[in-house]
Amino acid sequence: MPVRRRGLEAAPSVPGAGSGIGSDSVSRTDNGMVSVEIALSLALVLLFALMGTWLLAAGQLQARLTDAARATARELARGDSAVEAIAVGHRITPDARVEVLRDDTIIQVSAHQELHGPGPVLSGLQRTMTATVVTEPEQDSPW
Fold first, then answer.
1. Is position 5 within any domain?
2. E-assigned strands of the chain?
3. What is the mean pLDDT of the chain?
4. pLDDT for 48-71, tens place per residue?
5. Cα 115 to Cα 45: distance, rounded to the nearest angstrom
6. Residue 111: how many CB atoms within 10 A of its CB?
7. What was the pLDDT predicted at 101?
8. Residue 56 is part of which domain span?
């Protein structure tokens, strides 16, 4: 009768065991790769979210500058003074620089502002919106 020794039984054969594909040495080096991939993916998602927010802010700035230039030009066309009309433009966009160029029948209003973003890449966007109004030449009214 053969003698059995405890603890020395042969381990069952597993395909891929030992050195080569699927061995413990390969799987140990891959353990940190998932963490690195997730970290890089999250950083990329954060970057795209930041860029999207900045683009929305740039669009909002452009709309406010357009509104300020149009409102200022409208007030000037109604006959208000330049100081009162520029004050209307500043109520819409307080940080904007509003300039008025007046010819005989043409009034041109420009609103300028710089958009400051996070970091040096996204800051320093200059936006200028212009509104032009053609007025009628003043005539002596019979009224």
1. no
2. 97-102, 106-115, 125-134
3. 81
4. 998 898 889 889 999 999 999 999
5. 23
6. 28
7. 93
8. 27-134
Q: Would you place residue 10 in the very low, low, confident or very high pLDDT band (cuts 50, 70, 90)?
A: low
Q: Note whether residue 86 is domain-resident.
A: yes
Task: Report if residue 47 sits inside a domain.
Answer: yes
Does residue 3 fall inside a structural domain? no
Task: List strands edge to edge, sheet with 125-134.
Answer: 97-102, 106-115, 125-134
Neighbours of 128 (CB within 10 A): 14
Q: Which residue has the higher pLDDT, 40 or 4?
A: 40
Q: How many domains, the chain?
A: 1
pTM: 0.67
Distance CA(7)–CA(14), nearest Å, equals 19
Give the integer Cα–Cα distance in Å for 33 and 17: 22
pLDDT in tens, 64-112: 999 999 999 999 988 889 999 999 999 999 999 999 999 888 999 999 9
Q: What CA–CA distances, in Å, run from 93 to 56, 74, 96, 109?
A: 16, 16, 6, 14
Specify whether the CB–CB gap between 100 and 82 falls below 8 A.
yes
Closest Cα to residue 93, out of 55, 63, 64? 64
Give phi and psi for 97, each to the nearest 5.
Answer: -100, 120
54 CB neighbour count, 10 Å cutoff: 18
